[in-house]
UniProtKB/TrEMBL annotation:
GO biological process: photoreactive repair
Name of this protein: Deoxyribodipyrimidine photo-lyase
Residue ranges occupied by any Photolyase/cryptochrome alpha/beta domain in the UniProt entry: 20-150
Xref: Gene3D superfamilies: 1.25.40.80, DNA Cyclobutane Dipyrimidine Photolyase, subunit A, domain 3 (1.10.579.10), HUPs (3.40.50.620)
Keywords noted in UniProt: DNA damage, DNA repair, DNA-binding, FAD, Flavoprotein, Lyase
Entry-linked NCBIfam families: phr2
Classification of source organism: Bacteria, Pseudomonadati, Thermodesulfobacteriota, Desulfovibrionia, Desulfovibrionales
């Protein structure tokens, strides 16, 4: 009996398995434990009585990622290397375009199959397509990111959480189960390979140094596990009420580790379910972790334009177009927004927090994105600027959750029409006054008023000036 549910698997080509070793190409799930792709690769290696190897192709640049994101990634991958070494599985760190270096390695090692991670983003789909077409062996994708595999929940783009929720809840009992432990290699790996050069890996990057390294949070599986334990013991109780208060500290702070695949969402759900906390808090957290997060995966898989205004639903595009000519009291350039130089002290504080820490509270992310719409010449410009800033500065940027969240905030994706107002039309708006009614805005502004932000290089424009 297979230990990995076949609904997690997808063949990316029609090539046969060859006689050689199994190669697990890790590109999204950067962990040894709770990794269905790695479990599938080992299962196949055991069945075929061949050794297993793991490889990672380090692209020299990736969307807007900078040194802070790459440093976090590489620290986690070094932990993966040590974890695999302890159970006899070699880890190959390759430098260059993954769509080129992975096939080259597969040929050099004469592997018989490539097992890899599911990812709905265009750049990853492109890598997968190129590799599957080039190699002469089977390439298989495994969904380890979602508790319920993305394709198993729905074969179409879902329009709202209300349409998605019953579908995923119906399947949850089948997939929210115990995860097997990865066992040691059974057939020894005997081929010599140079030790991975982690310094050379950092030197190979072609990214801006403007987005510098962070002093925290700690990277890797061990740190993620400790953070999960801390959250469930100290902050899960009260989550339902406190999660929208940026001052309250009720959030899990797990988003970076989940984004980088250093922590399994399935493991998080299992731990939360068993935690000593009120059921309403568990339910509120699981709604975000399971329904909302996996709805974002569905959105990016089935919407090719997930990171642009083309992804907005028809009703939102019509209303935003109808209000295109509305007066905008403030218009800010991308540089002014990036440098937190607006008239709004709450928005500036949120931007400064992101610049300094790579993190922004979920409630403020919504406010932040909606204000970018209000202060931009068009929804298209607003979406482009928000995506760039989010991907450039957030540790968890370049993620389906982020793209779906921005499309919700700016273009009404997964939402419904609201009372009409200037600029937004019937897209839901948020205001400074509304924020003040939900949490202590002045306390948050004060907390992040002194964080360093780059100097303003351009003055803002008022419309008509």
């Amino acid at each position: 009996m297979n230990i990995v549910d076949e609904r997690r698997l997808m063949a990316l080509n029609e090539r046969p398995y060859g006689p050689g070793p199994v190669l697990y190409w890790m590109h999204r799930e950067h962990r040894v434990n709770d990794n269905w792709g790695l479990l599938r690769a080992r299962e196949l290696a055991v069945d075929r009585d061949v050794p297993l190897a793991v490889a990672y192709g380090l692209a020299p640049d990736y969307l807007e990622a900078g040194l802070r994101q790459y440093a976090f990634l590489l620290a986690g991958l070094r932990e993966v290397e040590h974890g695999l070494e302890a159970i006899g599985i070699p880890f190959f760190l390759l430098l260059g375009d993954p769509a080129e270096v992975i096939p080259d390695l597969a040929r050099y090692l004469a592997v018989g199959a490539i097992i890899t991670d599911f990812d709905p983003l265009r750049i990853k789909r492109g890598w997968l397509k190129r590799i599957a077409a080039e190699v002469q062996i089977a390439v298989e994708e495994v969904d380890s990111r979602n508790i319920v595999p993305c394709r198993a929940v729905s074969e179409k783009k879902e329009w709202a959480a209300r349409t998605f929720r019953p579908k995923i809840h119906r399947l949850l009992p089948e997939f929210l189960t115990a995860i097997p432990t990865l066992k040691p290699q059974t057939v020894p790996w005997n081929l010599d390979w140079p030790a991975n050069d982690w310094s050379q890996a950092m030197d190979s990057l072609k990214v801006s140094s403007d987005v510098g390294r962070l002093s925290g949070p700690r990277s890797g599986e061990l740190a993620a596990g400790a953070l999960l334990a801390e959250f469930t013991a100290e902050r899960l109780s009260g989550y339902a009420v406190g999660r929208n208060d940026p001052n309250g500290g009720a959030t899990s702070r797990l988003s970076a580790h989940l984004h980088f695949g250093m922590l399994s969402a399935q493991r998080v759900a299992l731990v939360v379910i068993q935690a000593d906390a009120p059921q309403e808090d568990k339910d509120a957290f699981l709604e975000q972790l399971v329904v909302r997060r996996e709805l974002a995966e569905n959105f990016c898989l089935h919407e090719p334009a997930y990171d642009s205004a083309e992804s907005f639903p028809d009703w939102a595009r019509r209303t935003l177009d109808a209000h295109q000519g509305d007066p905008r009291p403030y218009l800010y350039s991308r540089d002014e927004l990036e440098q937190a130089c607006t008239h709004d002290p709450l928005w500036n504080a949120a931007q400064r927090e992101m610049l300094a820490t790579g993190y922004m509270h979920g409630y403020l992310r919504m406010y932040w994105a909606k204000k970018i719409l209000e202060w931009s010449k068009s929804p298209e410009e607003a979406m482009a600027v928000a995506v760039r800033l989010n991907d450039r500065w957030e540790l968890d940027g370049r993620d389906p959750n982020g793209y779906a969240g921005l499309a919700w905030a700016i273009g009404g994706v997964h939402d419904r029409p609201w009372p009409e107002r200037s600029v937004f039309g019937t897209v839901r708006s948020m205001s400074f006054r509304g924020a003040r009614s939900k949490f202590d805005v002045q306390a948050y502004i004060q907390a992040f008023a002194v964080l360093p932000a780059p100097k303003m290089t351009k003055s803002f424009q008022r419309q008509g000036s």
